[in-house]
Amino acid sequence: MTRILRNSAGYILHKISTTRPPDGDPARVSCRVCGWRRRAASKAEARALRDRHAQRPREWPTFHVGLVTGTGLGTNNHAAAIGVSDDLPTCAWALAGNRGAARTIHAPQFLADEAVAAIMTTGIDVAQAVLDMRQLAKLCDAGTSLVVIAAASTSSGPGYDIAGVGDYGLYHCQGGDVVPLMSSLQPNTPTGDEEASTFATGMRITRLRAPLDRERLVVMSGSVARAVTAEERAALITGVRNPQTCAHDLFQAGVRAGMQQNAALLVLDPLSTE
Ligand SMILES: [Zn+2]
């Protein structure tokens, strides 16, 4: 059974359904629009988790999320993770990529999941999360890219905290334009708020705070960011309304342009919850 939570204008904020698995597997509960998902030991627990997500306060930030991860293009691996709290007005996302050998192919999913879990459970700073995960990644492979995003509210108003290291592109819609916020491809992107920290380890982590207005934020692996032209990127980010379709179309544009590596893309659409 599916439960739907709408804002006062009737727009869908959350759409939650439980999946009946084959015998023996845990039940899954997931929200098709914000990306929230849980595993449940029983049908009763699945129903309880579903009902709890449906009671998430409407005033808390809500996002419709598109996520695409490409596979089958070689041994490089990229992954993304989504965190939505039912206890706190917090959402977090991470995208990880790995240029390493096939033996580390599962590392990016682990790192993305761990980064999101650290943000959600300990409220750790995004730059510290990147630093911690990158140190972890170094144990198996130095070629790991990682971007961590947390939606947070502070005295200066609601905003995104973002930190990244490695090979990625990050873009924000601003009044109909698509603005590169932070990117390994354009290290001198003038954002005003960007701050690069070189930690004692010598690692350069870029971080910034961006306004959490109602416009779309897109983060993508460097492989797809390089493959897609600025014109095509802007046309798809501003022209494709559904975030999942947008992420898919950007990925396919990269494939058509001859992208030789795997890629992950996250498209975040903040919603008005009033
Ligand atoms: Zn949801």
Q: Could you explain the architecture of this structure?
A:
- The protein is 26% helix and 38% strand.
- By secondary structure, the chain is of the alpha+beta class.
- The protein folds into two domains: 2-54, no CATH class; 62-271, 4-Layer Sandwich (Phosphatase 2c, domain 1).
- The strands form three sheets. It has a six-stranded antiparallel beta sheet, covered by helices on one side. Strands 5-15-14-10-11 form a five-stranded antiparallel beta sheet.
- Strand 2 and strand 3 form a beta hairpin.
- It is globular.
- Mean pLDDT is 82; it is low at 186-194.
- It binds zinc ion (ZN).
- Residues 14, 31, 33-34, 36, 53 line the site of zinc ion.
What would CATH call the homologous superfamily of the largest domain?
Answer: PPM-type phosphatase domain
Strand-pairing-aware structural class: alpha+beta
Beta-strand residue fraction: 35-45%
Note the run of SSEs as H and E: EEEEHEEEHHEEEEEEEHHHE
Major sheet summary line: 6 strands, antiparallel
Mean pLDDT: 82
Report the uncertain regions: 186-194
Helix share of residues?
A: 25-40%
The radius of gyration over CA amounts to: 18 Å
Oligomerization state: single chain
Can you identify the CATH class of the largest domain?
Alpha Beta
- The CATH topology name of the largest domain reads Phosphatase 2c, domain 1
Q: Which descriptor suits the 3D outline?
A: globular
Count of distinct structural domains? 2
Major sheet strand order? 6-7-8-9-13-12
Query: Helical stretch count?
Result: 6
